[in-house]
Amino acid sequence: MVVSSWVMWVKRLKIERLRSLLQVDLSPSESLNLIVGPNGSGKTSFLEAIYFLGVGRSFRSRSLKDVVARGHRVLRLFGEIVTDDGATETLGVERGPGETRNRISGEDVQSASRLAKFLPTLLITPESQRLLTDGARLRRRMLDWALFHVEPTYNGLLQRYRHALRQRNSQLRQSSTVASQRAWSRELEVCAVELHEIRERYALEMSQPMDKLIGQLLCRDVEVRYQPGWNPQESLAERLDRSIEADIARGYTAYGPHRADISFTVDGTAAQHVLSRGEAKLFISAVLLAQTAYVMRKTKSIPVVLMDDLPSELDDHNRVKLLEALGASKAQIFLTTVSLALLDSSSWTSRKMFHVEQGTVHEMV
């Protein structure tokens, strides 16, 4: 199987039995796609289907029974993907009780990560603003998304680190002796140093494009800072040695890349305490779009951008600015809205509009 990594756009999308979308078959625009309909009509489910096709799971629920249409057992998704050389590859996902199947270009693949490599998707929803408020875990996930696509060894290295961390934490809870912790501490340190180097390089390379996009959308001076999970002025080995007795008492490892974070400040104050809801939406959109540009520049792979309810919490001026920023990304874009009047897309040379109501999707002309 030969698959180009330069994914360009979703040419055809088929959705079967995902929530209220029982049977959908359509051909999106390679540029802008507007999904319009009243609340509860199935607009977010439309985005969920594309995300599921590219990731192998829902972004709305961990329970498959919540995603499969009521009264049915299996959902199926199919996409035709146009690559950089104009070739069309196929992607398929099937999920049900005891039924897990992923196919790329007609061949079964076991790992959902293969789907993510084949069809990178960037998701921006109202929940994305939790990146500012809900702790470091979500921000690390944001960072890991970009590096998963950019660094071929990153995912394996991260899994190796997590395994060493689980083993060390298990040892911390089972034994009260310092000597018993040494072996897994060493493996942890080796992986941590490599992870830190990759993440630090990413943070440096991202700073300029991120600053530029934030400046365009927000017109405020925002500082973005990477924090590795320990004081980088000392080695992690030294930090773990000095804290090992405290770690034994706690029963877990308090320092390392699993504690890394990205902080956002405005004039020295945490961004979530300064930015309005509308400003926070623009800010998070800028950060995530900068990541998309980074992935495109590094890999030549073009993520599909999914944005749920773009107009909410933004005035007309800021809606225009955000739509322009999305257009500048050169990605295929899917946006949802309750009304086309809220989004002026007349300047786009290539666009399609789809109306969703009660699980039925129709292209608007």
Overall geometry comes to globular
Output the number of helix runs: 10
Major sheet: order of its strands? 2-1-4-5-6-7
Biggest sheet character:
6 strands, antiparallel
- How many distinct beta strands? 15
CATH architecture heading of the domain at 1-120 and 301-365: 3-Layer(aba) Sandwich
Q: In what range is the share of β-strand residues?
A: 15-25%
Through-space gap between termini: 38 Å
Q: CATH homologous superfamily of the domain at 1-120 and 301-365, by name?
A: P-loop containing nucleotide triphosphate hydrolases
Q: Averaged pLDDT, please?
A: 90
Q: Specify the structural class.
A: alpha/beta
Q: What low-confidence regions span 5 or more consecutive residues with pLDDT below 50?
A: 1-5
Task: Reconstruct the topology from this structure.
Layout: E1 7-18, E2 21-26, E3 32-36, H1 43-55, H2 64-67, E4 75-83, E5 88-96, E6 99-104, E7 107-109, H3 112-118, E8 121-124, H4 130-133, H5 136-150, H6 154-174, H7 182-218, E9 222-227, H8 236-250, E10 261-266, E11 269-270, H9 277-299, E12 304-307, H10 316-328, E13 333-337, E14 351-357, E15 360-364
